[in-house]
Amino acid sequence: xxxxxxxxxxxxxxxxxxxxxxxxxxxxxxxxxxxxxxxxxxxxxxxxxxxxxxxxxxxxxxxxxxxxxxxxxxxxxxxxxxxxxxxxxxxxxxxxxxxxxxxxxxxxxxxxxxxxxxxxxxxxxxxxxxxxxxxxxxxxxxxxxxxxxxxxxxxxxxxxxxxxxxxxxxxxxxxxxxxxxxxxxxxxxxxxxxxxxxxxxxxxxxxxxxxxxxxxxxxxxxxxxxxxxxxxxxxxxxxxxxxxxxxxxxxxxxxxxxxxxxxxxxxxxxxxxxxxxxxxxxxxxxxxxxxxxxxxxxxxxxxxxxxxxxxxxxxxxxxxxxxxxxxxxxxxxxxxxxxxxxxxxxxxxxxxxxxxxxxxxxxxxxxxxxxxxxxxx
Length: 377
Ligand code: GLA
Prior knowledge:
Blueprint: H1 3-23, E1 27-36, E2 39-47, E3 53-57, E4 63-69, E5 75-77, H2 85-90, E6 98-99, E7 105-106, E8 110-113, E9 116-119, E10 128-129, E11 142-147, E12 151-160, E13 171-180, E14 184-193, E15 197-198, E16 202-203, E17 221-224, E18 228-230, E19 243-244, E20 256-257, H3 267-272, E21 276-280, E22 289-295, E23 301-307, E24 311-315, E25 324-325, E26 331-332, E27 339-343, E28 358-359, E29 365-375
Antiparallel strand pairs: 1-2, 2-3, 3-4, 4-5, 6-16, 7-10, 8-9, 11-12, 12-13, 13-14, 14-29, 15-28, 17-20, 17-22, 18-19, 18-21, 21-24, 22-23, 23-29, 24-27, 25-26
Bound molecules: alpha-D-galactopyranose.
């Protein structure tokens, strides 16, 4: 071969390599997404080395989209959401949001801490749900993009003022999202307060491993590493006991289709119109352990959930009713998404036997959850 030919072939190879590496480079970019409460809202796009992408905005610390590969390495967006801020501002059931100061319900919006009774904003019948009327899902956070060896990182901070939604103490909350090069969305939470308070932060993505808008999640196979769940009253408030799942439709110890028992006559299913309960994750809380595996057989997509939290709220989108249209124009019908919200138990401030959600002045709240994606042949 002529030397000029060798050189030009080498040059072509170099171009190809550059194209491949830039297509799959780890990066984080920022674009303007509008304004909320008179403050700018930005949408960050995190990309990992395998081409997976997460979009996260600083309004509500919301994950607006998350792509994951199927068994043929085809990427689809696996979370429900919108492609414009207005749709989020108009109201939605916590799509992709960080929920706080307290994930899930506090009965009658009341609790007593050190002999003082606190009255919270009530927004779910007589109860307080997901932090109240204007929870952490509806505020503008401060965002800082960075990169580490393990992936692109978006750090979000929010100062919740003393008395906000009725909660005591100025709470400084920090949420660190990392899109790792192992195809994980990792969430590290920390919080501190200047007065004793309660806190229970969680993440509220609605997953559909067939791709958002592509039907319901009833064919997804679920495994939950939990021998017990928390039964509730008809208003979804824990009764106080931890119930054995054995022989009930709440046993997901073996991989089971979500739809297999969902329409049964079990009173707990009837109360919630499907699954909307906390499971008690086996193993030691505080240590990172596997809470759940979801497998979607038509695409081969798998999602594992790992957490340091004692519980996981498994919710089957029972309240989705076809009134919201998602980012690609598809209508979100009942059960078009599933949530696996890692958290302490609902209404813990009123159940002293539950692991405590009290955060003392000077102490640091810490929690980690990982959603790990892969595919099976
Ligand atoms: C949680 C609650 C549900 C519902 C959804 C959002 O999963 O437990 O009852 O509020 O959030 O609609």
